[in-house]
Amino acid sequence: MKILQAFYTVYSLLIFVFLMLLFGLFIVIPLLFSPKAGEVSFFFIRVWARIWAFLSGFKIEIHGREKIDLNQPYIYIFNHRSFFDAPVIPVAIPQQVRALGKKELSKIPLFGWVVGKAAVWVDRYDPESRKESIQKLVDILKQGISIVVAPEGTRNDTDKMLLPFQKGAFRLSVETGIPILPMAIIGADQIHQKGSLLLSPGKVRVYFSRPIYPDPETGLEELEEKCRNQLEAMILTQD
Prior knowledge:
Largest sheet: 7 strands, mixed
Order of helices and strands: HHEEHEHEHEHEHEH
CATH superfamily: Glycerol-3-phosphate (1)-acyltransferase
Strand order of the largest sheet: 1-7-6-2-5-3-4
Structural class: alpha/beta
Number of helices: 8
Shape: globular
CATH class: Alpha Beta
Number of strands: 7
Strand content: 15-25%
CATH architecture: 3-Layer(aba) Sandwich
CATH topology: Glycerol-3-phosphate (1)-acyltransferase
């Protein structure tokens, strides 16, 4: 069984790399000209992710997309349980977005170069890097472009539903007035399980909440608690 899974993983990764080579320039070039041209880039990112998913036997179901106002930027937060979350997010979100990503991913040949044009890299262990990344995200939000943040700060490989939240996303929301939109990703950890390099075919379901607006009178802590409770409720209901 493991041998078949290993062959399947190699097959899927070869498709992934081939599609990256095929669409890479179509993703990168528009972003070099203008942030607004990112709509073109994200069209090709979605094509890349959808073709890869189809050819690999991954199914992605999306629920609650009607709750998203396409003319409104959001701070999307999600439960991070698998590296497979990354290709699911651009398929699920019908807007161009910028994601906060670990600096280590930027060192992956080709992938780091392509994805880096639509990501803000951060060294989680460097306070100065974290500060710079927050400022870059503020600038992106001011341009009317949504961002995606994993508030747990890292992949959750534990049995807990959610790890403790970092405060960056909620501080951004309070400072800018941009609403937070929780999204629950269910099943990604079955396609790429913790402690394994192998992939398995399967189905991922994505659920969007209604946006949660910051309240200047209640502040950061209550916003974080409200968002965490909402995300937990979505996972419990749909898991």
